[in-house]
Design a protein that fits this description.
single chain, Rossmann fold, 47% helix
Length: 146
């Protein structure tokens, strides 16, 4: 099996940095291509009326998403790795799983959910590993305390 077409989900957090570096290095070695994916998580604002405060949150998430995928693009281009960027709306797990059939491999970190949010939502990486259409490489973050 060839792993030329690699999906790299990112949420812009430090938890995904190590996975991004690993994905860029891997893609460079195998002459692969990366698609950086940020999912604008609508579950956080789905039940709120679309007033100005919610619009500001949405715009802030959209800006965060652009920054997250641009960061991957800069790293990939610096390494000479072809890269596409994609920002989609929805539930991160569902969007990543829907996209998984289009790729040979997903390389992802443990997305930055912590505390109660992680308890309620479950680990995005764990749920992707269980249901992905393609192999998934989960890269643990290189943060102090690990």
């Amino acid at each position: 099996m060839e792993f030329k077409n690699i999906l790299v989900p990112t949420d812009g957090s430090e938890y995904t940095e190590t996975a991004i570096e690993a994905a860029v290095e891997f893609a460079k070695k195998i002459n692969g291509k990366i698609t950086a994916l940020y999912v604008l998580d609508q579950t956080m604002i789905a039940n709120m009326p679309m007033d100005t405060a919610v619009r500001n949150v949405y715009d802030s998430l959209a800006a965060e998403g652009k920054e997250a995928v641009d960061s991957v693009r800069v790293k990939a281009e610096a390494a000479g790795v072809p890269v596409d960027i994609s920002v989609k709306e929805g539930s991160p797990v569902k969007v990543i799983l829907d996209e998984s059939s289009k790729y040979d491999l997903i390389i992802m970190g443990t997305l930055g959910r912590t505390g109660m949010s992680k308890l309620l939502m479950g680990s995005v990486a764990e749920r992707v590993v269980r249901a992905s259409s393609c192999p998934v490489l989960v890269v643990r973050a290189n943060t102090a305390g690990n």
